[in-house]
Amino acid sequence: MLDDAAAGQAGVALLGGDAGIGKTRMIAELAERAASAGFAVLIGQCAELGDVLPYLPLADALRSARGELRAALDARPVLGRLLPGGTDPGMESTSGLTQQQLFGSVLGFLSAQPVLLVLEDLHWADQSTRDLLVFLSRMLQTERVCLVGTYRTDDLHRRHPLRRVLAELNRLPSVTSVELGPLDRHEMTDYLAALGGTDPRVMGEVVDRAEGNPFYAEELLEAASEGSSMTDGLAGLLLSRTELLSDPAQQVLRGAAVAGRRADHDLLQRASGLDDLAFEEAMREIVSRGLLQPDGDYGYAFRHALLQEAVYNDLLPGERTRMHGEFARLLTARGGSAAELAHHYLAGHDLPEALAASVEAGRRAERLGAPAEAHRHFDRALGLWDRVPDAEDRAGIDHASLAVRSATTAADSGDNHRAISQLRRLPPSAEINERLSYILTDLDDEQGAIAAAHAAVEAAPDGPLLARALATYARSLQWSERHDEVEAMAARALETARASDAADAETSALITLAALAALADDIPRAKELLACATAESSGNLAVDLRAIFTQARVQYENGDLAEAAVSADRGLRLAYDSGLKWSTFGTDLRFLRLLVHYVAGEWEAAEKVASGFAVRVGTPAEALLSSFALFVEVARGLPVVEERLSWLEPFCPGDPLVNAMTRGLAAEHALWQGEAEAALEHARAAIEGLPVNDPAAIRLSSTALWALADLGRPGEADAFLERARTPAAIGPGSVRRGPLGPEGLAWLARAEAEWHRAHGRLDVAAWRAVVEAFDFGFVYEVARSRHRLAEALLAAGDRAEAQQEWRLAVEAAASLRAEPLGAALAELGRRARFSSAPSSTATEEPVPASARQASARSAAARSAPGRAALGRAAPLTAREREVLALVAEGLPNREIGERLFIAQKTVSVHVSNILSKLGVASRTQAAAVAHRDDLL
């Protein structure tokens, strides 16, 4: 609008929004831009004075007129009367003729030069100012004027006079209506960080309470720094809107505040004590002022939670207690929810009823699959226990059992540390020690978990509790030096569980036995056991999630990406439906799903998943998910990487997995930036936090060797290669590991190849082995390995094959939008003077386009809607069709070779040719094209 005004086309903007939403801040920015563009800026504010001072905002604006505009003002005596020292316009005649003279003078005055005229807080404007606004909106046409009026939407009650004016003006073509809405969570977090917020937990609470209002957020952040819940300024602002209500309306509003954020019509009327007519009139007054708004068919809700909080905090203590007691009595009579009853009984100081209602509310939340809410109710009941003489009779459960349920629901909601703290405060028993061991295992406290599980088995009587204790004992031993005892312990747990009909213990034992089979490379047995474990619900959601996650993990680690995706999706549906997305295995399933997308080359989906993992993390669970988001973000070179790494850093020392993921991917990021020394330090720190038999050390060691090769320092290479080889041979305790899955073997091959590179050798055979190893479906790593293979082939003098490998890598990097890899390939192509044209012989032409341009071409080719697969190149050969059919079945190269009696290397060549001919980047995409175009 400023641009239009400068060109001689006047415009009017009406800027609305709740108090504190940012209208004034926007006007300040607009005024700054207008001034820099040569506009005179006039800003006037209305005041909450009604019609006592007509034209108050105009008078306020005119006082800042300077220069040419001031001369124009002095030349108009009618306007001069509005300035200090002039005749008070409120004492003059306000006849129509006088008003016409004034309006004409304002219009002439605004024509002197480009002007931004702002009239703020029009909800307080007098009638004359509203008339002036209508006049100018209709008459301004070719003047170089931008007129802006602001108003509070939350102050426009149903009969507010400005409503009619806004409706009239919004029909004019020259008027633009802008209403500011609340900021979303990410924007609000950014805003708090800009204000100096540093504590993630405090910031998270402020974001929740502010509900998108930046002024409220700023005030709440200040209050939090002072240790209070709300500043006086914010409370005063909120309460000022209630003071204009009549006494009956204030009485009803106070009752609504006691009811909570939402209130039922009938319940609120009964609590108010008003008859039907008086209550309806009070409600009409409240709703018309925007304090409450209709909610559903028969209720009301506060416009903002902080308004409810301010009204509630303004109640006198005795008044608050009495009203809560009344709501509790009314809800009991009508059969209200246990959660509501618990709240009102507690606030009304009826502790016995509050205890009983809290326990029942926790039970109901458990049945609904809401562990966080269940824990809150159970925890409140535990806090009341010692203050209620007959607590056990009231609760219908003993103290120890209630504490175990509270701890279990805390763990299910992702708060393992809280759960352990509660359990350790209790007198030890078989049930308590079994739960303690289970949770300590999730936290990798091996010794504590084993000790608690042993105590549970020793104390448990025959039956379901013994079965659970044995299953948990087997689980706690799984990765310890006593690994040889696990199978016998799990088998005993399975037998005891089946004899006592303990379905959850049976499932837990099956999962442990399956993990042992997978470790021994007996994958068919592992899959069979997991199929039994996941066939039906065990009655324990946490165990069911563990079973599905283990099934998905075994499938993923053995290269069965399509199966892993199906299992992970099933687990995620269960986690979300049951409220367990932040539990241990709910979190694990979420990052595993991202990894399946990442490995399969489905990076748009992977990035979408990663974008849902918070950057500004506040809990260990959030930090774990955030660290996995780095996979795709580092590989694509996204700007968010640096910020995510900075927020993850404080969580690294306390969590080995977060440390391994964060520091390992920080190392890769540093290597893409050419900072090999920093990368080596990151990789070393990541490896140091892992057990010697952890397979994650293989990938991290290969990254360290990459850094050493770039630095030209072979001295440390032998140690890192040995560190990579150790987990490939040693399992838990003293057990020898069976062969690693395809990905583990591929990373080990990468470590071997990087070791050669660190010693100054570009070994063609080693890098060819890496490409073949990753060709089980890991699209990105195949491309990265082809980059190195092309280098090695060039060094060996095989230029034609080098260009072929380079071209395939460029196509894959472009399709994935892997910018750092694309840039490295572009540099290699420039040095080698490769052509990007798909030919079998090299040319002497330089690379004609950057990796980014190649990405755009490839993306355009992929998006062509009707392009048949066989129209891109020569038809598939008979052998390629056979290979494609087995690829579509999900078989890795090794099994395809066994089926067709050909070498695995030959299979790899066929798969590469198929992908090239079909114009796809992954085996999954090739299978989809094969089914779509009837190629099988």
TrEMBL record:
Biased composition (Low complexity): 849-863
Annotated InterPro entries: AAA_16 (IPR041664), P-loop_NTPase (IPR027417), Sig_transdc_resp-reg_C-effctor (IPR016032), TPR-like_helical_dom_sf (IPR011990), Tscrpt_reg_LuxR_C (IPR000792), WH-like_DNA-bd_sf (IPR036388)
Pfam assignment, any one: GerE
Alphabetical UniProt keywords: ATP-binding, Nucleotide-binding
Keyword Flavoprotein: no
Matching PROSITE patterns: HTH_LUXR_1 (PS00622), HTH_LUXR_2 (PS50043)
Region Disordered: start-end pairs: 835-863
Every HTH luxR-type domain range: 869-934
UniProt-listed PANTHER family: TESTICULAR SOLUBLE ADENYLYL CYCLASE (PTHR16305), TRANSCRIPTIONAL ACTIVATOR DOMAIN (PTHR16305:SF35)
Name of the protein: Helix-turn-helix transcriptional regulator
Source organism (scientific name): Streptosporangium longisporum
